Amino acid sequence: MPEFNEGLKKDYFGPAGRSSHREDTVIEINEVKVGGSDLAIIAGPCSVESREQILNIADEIKDTGACILRGGAFKPRTSPYNFQGLGEEGLRYLSEAGRASGLPVISEITGICQIDLFGDIDIIQVGARNMQNFELLKEVGRLGKPVLIKRGFSNTLRELLFAADYVMNEGNPNVILCERGIRTFETYTRNTLDLSAVPVLKKLTHLPVIVDPSHATGRSEFVEPMALAAVAAGADGIMIEVHDDPVHSVTDGRQAIDPEAFMRLVSRARAVRAALKEE
To answer: Measuring CA to CA, how many Å separate 172 from each of 23, 134, 140, 146?
Structure first.
């Protein structure tokens, strides 16, 4: 009979594989590094709701430790009746907030037809629903910009690495992998955060690995403990949803934390990272 951990013994030979690049990849966006010794902290609202909102949140999170600003302009929603994002207008507001705060920005692309709209976006996010949209992966790979790929709800880690290969095979080595929870039989949290993905991916790939505890848990009270656990597991960064008024957020307010809670989370996350460096 095969051993229980037989899967961990198998190497991965694609361009994302550790065997093709022994040293950890460090991706630089402006003066921000994702991977290596730094802890990348990505934060911002689920959706760009207005110009004033994203400008205010950008200032708040920069002052409390974020290094990359996130904000959704195109929102893939399960229900067609929910807020779908501001689209191109939202991207303009996000870009303006990034320039004003000095933070690089990341936003999710949902279709090839949007490619030309992302010229001012520093990092393109391919969400969980599009992890296996292979034509989209190839198109964003050709742009040459850093690409963050979120693991799909029911996808294996090897499938996530194959998604990265689609981007890298287009000549773009700047790929970030994101664990954001998978769908299991448990319903108390939004998804089940697979923290074992962090050390497994660090074994299999040289690419940076970050964790999104906001989408994984779906509940603000669980975001900080799972963010700290992700850092302790060796994640290169965390992605946190921050809103200045979570109760009135138009999308996913239940999982957003306010700037004060974010400041506390950042302080503790950096303490965990520092403790790991001392070992």
So the answer is: 17, 15, 9, 8
